From TrEMBL:
This is 5'-nucleotidase SurE. SUPFAM superfamilies: SurE-like (SSF64167). Nucleotidase that shows phosphatase activity on nucleoside 5'-monophosphates. Binds 1 divalent metal cation per subunit. GO terms for cellular component: cytoplasm. Its cofactor is a divalent metal cation. Its EC number is 3.1.3.5. A divalent metal cation binds at residues 16-17, 48, 101. It is found in: Cytoplasm. It comes from Burkholderia cepacia (Pseudomonas cepacia). It holds the Pfam family SurE.
Length: 271
């Protein structure tokens, strides 16, 4: 098959930065030759940090922006649900692509990411999904061309490889020029750089208090096979993610202590 031939019939694009975000435009350009139909269903406004949340207590307003283009007053998860369950119900998409996010999504940060949340929601409704994010060192000078040049090849390779239905893929592009990017690496999820959440208190002109939440970040050491280490080394990283989050070591410890407690209770007549 030609490298320019479409490999999908329908692809759905969404994001968490909003309908007018530059990363969404980059993604649309990147997949133009990959699918016969490209649908865009994205939040009307910035929904960064909304994770997998769904709007269950208020109606969703969907604005038709053009052929196969919609802006939803809701979260990235809402966008996927409305697109797959209604707007595209005649023929579900072959793939959902979420991004390209402004900034990497690594480690713990993926729990909060609306970009990743949209991909996870897609997995929930039975459509394969990839989240894509572009790392940067200067917010005012994001190397979007890196994602633009490398995303088509990355998506083609991943489609050819395939992946488990209970996983979505988290792709990060390094914060370097496209020409300097190293080979794709399949990586484990790292610890990332998220350290906590800071609360910034302010007072408005009417003497009423208000607050901003700010994510605090700092470099950490990480495992050699982690996405963080490979991304810093200039590679495109691909990490499979899933819903199941059991901490096996903690579970083993709890079971052992619980069984020991039950044994003590049965052996001690004072209980």
């Amino acid at each position: 098959m030609s490298e320019t031939a479409p490999i999908f019939n329908r692809v759905l694009l969404t994001n968490d930065d909003g309908y007018d975000a530059p990363g969404l435009k980059i993604l649309e350009q990147a997949v133009a030759t990959l699918a016969r139909e490209v649908w865009v269903v994205a939040p009307a406004e910035d929904q960064s940090g909304t994770s997998h949340s769904l709007s269950l207590h208020e109606p969703l307003r969907v604005h038709h922006k053009g052929e196969r283009r919609f802006a939803v007053r809701g979260t990235p998860g809402d966008c996927v649900a409305v697109a797959v369950g209604h707007l595209m119900e005649d023929a579900r998409p072959d793939l959902v692509l979420s991004g390209v996010n402004r900034g990497a999504n690594l480690g713990t940060e993926t729990v909060f990411s609306g970009t990743v949340g949209a991909a996870m929601t897609s997995m929930l409704v039975g459509v394969p999904a990839i989240a894509l994010s572009q790392a940067f060192t200067d917010r005012e000078s994001v190397p979007w061309n890196t994602a633009l040049e490398h995303a088509p090849n990355v998506i083609r390779q991943l489609a050819a490889l395939g992946w488990d239905s209970d996983a979505c893929l988290n792709v990060n592009f390094p914060a370097i020029p496209a020409k300097d990017v190293g080979p794709i690496r399949m990586t484990s999820q790292g610890a990332g750089v998220l350290q906590g959440v800071d609360v910034i208190a302010r007072r408005d002109p009417r003497e009423l208090d208000y607050y901003w939440l700010k994510l605090s970040r700092a470099p950490r050491e990480d495992a050699a096979d982690s996405e963080t280490v490979s991304l810093r080394a200039g590679h495109v990283t691909v990490t499979p993610l899933k819903f199941e989050r059991t901490h096996e070591h903690a579970l083993s410890g709890l079971r052992s202590r619980h069984l020991a407690g039950e044994q003590k209770t049965s052996d001690d007549p004072t209980f």
